[in-house]
From TrEMBL:
Record-stated family: Belongs to the ABC transporter superfamily. ABCG family. Eye pigment precursor importer (TC 3.A.1.204) subfamily.
InterPro entries assigned to the protein according to its UniProt record, in alphabetical order: AAA+_ATPase, ABC2_TM, ABC_transporter-like_ATP-bd, ABCG_dom, ABCG_transporters, P-loop_NTPase
Highest taxon above the source species: Eukaryota
The keyword Cell membrane is annotated on this UniProt entry: no
Taxonomic source organism: Halichondria panicea (Breadcrumb sponge)
Ranges for domain ABC transporter: 49-294
Name of the protein this chain belongs to: ATP-binding cassette sub-family G member 2
SMART domains: AAA (SM00382)
Main localization (coarse): membrane
Length: 661
């Protein structure tokens, strides 16, 4: 019989994990006008969070075909106060925390979580606070601005601006952040607040909604000893203020931190070794023969015991003789806990909660989002704009790169008409110039890769915490990127290159040229958006995008005449951004023109034939480009369609990203 089956904590008929039934009398307001975090599920007699027979399985192995159990049927009750989850590295602390916070794909989770004795609502992760291990806040914004962002989006729409500001001021004061309230957090380019202040800002982002359940993954990692203690003291004060459950994973707390814990859960390789009041843990370990020396830190001692037990596990597993008994030191600790009085008491509590949960249906405390789409769009767009303005180097360099490209193209093809070249090169040089221009626009927009990759962690965290809808983030990003980073630089490029090269002097021709250049730039950026929303690593995204661009370039009509492609490959030209773009630019400039040598007579020029003249339309038809007038707009449509398809793909990729969390 496996340990899992033996567990005395296995309840008889658990309600399904993450039940989302909505009580009919509970109004669901998508705009969140009546949401207060303490309604419904978070009533005054808050009994905390309980987890029943939690099993977590992931598929590992070369093709993800080998199921591996990470948590083996763990159960417990986390009442109001500071509850610490401890264990050696890889023991499953973060995994358990994520499951309790409703942030793991349900398909991989067995067992169920009750919040205040009711099934965990589906929007629980929006109504609880979760502070991730690697701080996630916008570096270009100040502490206060970040907190205002959280207040603007997470407090109900009915909250006035003055109330939001007041809430931010209270949080700043609670967290002792007054001194650095107006200091920027800091990015890789400039130093901002200290590590402790950054961590407290992260906690503040969650405290804005006064969550009754607050999860923290290793809140003290990376902080100096004094700051670490002050962060946990702060959490202790918060837990004492109201019926608040603080659940945190923590690695190796010093004694002054350990003292502050109310509840302690010890994990070893996905099994529970102790679960109960932190202050009883020493007595429990003494009672099973593990006596902590006086003056030793209990937290260090427990971790030593668990690490040694895990190591002995490894040794005995390879040892045939010991294997015959099937019992190792780590197994022993798990089994001893499961047979202990401590475990029996927890098991009884769990059973009572599970029995009562059948009579208490799951409820949603308000909607998933506290504010409406337009408000979210406005707030996220303002933040994106602020971020862009405070990172002027990125937008400045985008414009500068385009100006340099324009000057290079302009100098290479300077005043094409005035050059002493033979009549054929007048046309081929123009097509060469268009191809070079399009290539600059396409590859010059590789910077769009960063838009989604850099802020992916921020997006996943904020979206799953209920700050905003995927669509609000998507539209704000796309518009804030497209206008300043694609359209302005491309228009600047058009002005410089068009007049330096000396294309036809006509306002209509120039604006059509600029339109095609901007659309080319937007289409290339959309391809970069779609790939960057799909792939997590910049290097890989660049590789995929470059491959796609090169493929499109090949079918652009210059390296191989489009008409000479095999019939079964002809359709590919309709997927080529280069083809639409070069064809549109060439059409705009060359169709209807007759380029003749200086030696040509008036009659030859009139007829536009013979070796001394090149008919623009015939030349383009000869290399497989369309010259009918309607193609001027079909090409523009083709570019717009590519941009649209990839922008849609970006949106769906972002939605998938959200689901995969
Ligand atoms: N998606 C996954 N695929 C494969 N293994 C996983 C996955 N998620 C977790 N694990 C494994 O499960 C174990 C527990 O992971 P978890 O992150 O919960 O550990 P932890 O106790 O938080 O460790 P640490 O103290 O290092 O943060 C680890 O061995 C980890 O490699
Ligand atoms: Mg962890």
């Amino acid at each position: 019989m496996s340990d899992l089956e033996k567990s005395p904590l296995r309840s008889t008929s658990p309600p399904p994990y993450g039940t989302t039934d909505v009580e009919p009398e509970v109004a669901y307001h998508s705009q969140g006008e009546h949401i207060t975090v303490k309604e419904d599920i978070f009533k005054d007699d808050f009994v905390g969070v309980s987890f029943h027979d939690i099993v977590y399985v992931v598929n590992t192995g070369c093709c993800g075909t080998k199921p591996t159990e990470i948590l083996h049927s763990v159960s417990g009750v986390l009442p109001c106060g500071v509850n610490a989850i401890m264990g050696p590295t890889g023991s499953g602390k973060t995994t358990l925390l994520d499951i309790l916070a409703g942030r793991k794909a349900k398909a991989n989770v067995g067992g169920y979580v009750l919040v205040n004795g009711r099934p965990q609502p589906s929007n629980f992760r929006c109504k609880s606070g979760y502070v991730v291990q690697d701080d996630i806040v916008m570096g270009t914004l100040s502490v206060k601005e970040n907190l205002m962002f959280s207040a603007a989006l997470r407090l109900p729409s009915s909250t006035s601006w003055a109330q939001r500001k007041e809430r931010v001021a209270t949080v700043i004061q609670e967290l002792g952040l007054e001194r650095c309230a107006n200091t920027k957090i800091g990015t890789e380019f400039f130093r901002g607040v200290s590590g402790g202040e950054r961590k407290r800002t992260n906690i503040g982002m969650e405290l804005i909604i006064e969550p009754q359940v607050l999860f923290l993954d290793e809140p003290t990692t990376g902080l100096d000893a004094y700051t670490a203690v002050s962060v946990v003291q702060l959490l202790k004060r918060l837990s004492e203020k109201g019926d608040r459950v603080i659940i945190m994973s923590i690695h190796q707390p010093r004694y002054s931190i350990f003292k502050l814990f109310d509840g302690l859960t010890l994990l070893s390789q996905g099994d529970m070794v102790y679960h109960g009041p932190a202050q009883s843990s020493l007595d429990y370990f003494s009672s099973i023969g593990y006596v902590c020396e006086e003056r030793n830190n209990p937290a260090d001692y427990f971790l030593d015991v668990l690490t040694k037990a895990e190591k002995s596990n490894v040794i005995t597993e390879s040892d045939d003789t010991d294997n015959s008994t099937g019992v190792t030191e780590a197994n022993n600790l798990v089994n001893t806990y499961q047979e202990s009085q401590q475990c029996v008491e927890v098991s009884e509590q769990l059973q009572t909660l599970a029995d009562n949960s059948h009579t208490r249906r799951g409820v949603r405390s308000g909607g998933t989002y506290a504010t409406g789409f337009l408000w979210q769009l406005m707030v996220v767009t303002i933040r994106s704009l602020l971020n862009l303005l405070r990172n002027p180097m990125i937008s400045f360099f985008q414009v500068l790169t385009m100006v340099i490209f324009a000057l290079i193209v302009g100098l290479i093809y300077l005043r094409l008409d005035e050059k002493d070249v033979n009549v054929r090169t007048v046309v081929t040089d123009r097509i060469g110039a268009f191809f070079f221009i399009v290539m600059n626009q396409v590859f010059g927009n590789l910077s769009a890769v960063d838009v989604f990759i850099k802020q992916k962690a921020l997006f996943i965290h904020e979206n799953s915490s209920g700050f905003y809808r995927v669509s609000a983030f998507y539209f704000s990003k796309v518009f804030v990127d497209l206008i300043p980073m694609r359209i302005i630089p491309s228009f600047t490029f058009s002005v410089i290159a068009y007049f330096m090269i000396g294309f036809q002097v006509s306002a209509a021709k120039f604006f059509y040229f600029a339109l095609v250049i901007c659309l080319t730039s937007i289409a290339a950026a959309s391809i970069a958006f779609a790939i960057s929303a799909l792939v997590r690593v910049t290097g890989l995204a660049n590789l995929f995008i470059a491959m796609l661009f090169v493929f499109q370039m090949l079918f652009g009509g210059l390296f191989i005449s489009l008409d000479s492609l095999p019939v079964w490959l002809q359709w590919i030209k309709y997927l080529s951004l280069f083809r639409y773009s070069v064809e549109a630019l060439a059409h705009n400039e060359i169709v209807g023109q007759c380029y003749c040598s200086n030696n040509a007579t008036a009659a030859i020029i009139e007829a536009c034939s013979g070796p001394l003249c090149v008919n623009g339309s015939e030349f383009l038809s000869g290399i497989g480009y369309e010259t009918a007038p309607e193609w001027l707009w079909i090409d523009v449509g083709g570019l717009a369609a590519i941009a649209l398809v990839f922008l849609l793909l970006t949106y769906f990729n972002l939605r998938m990203l959200k689901k995969s969390k």
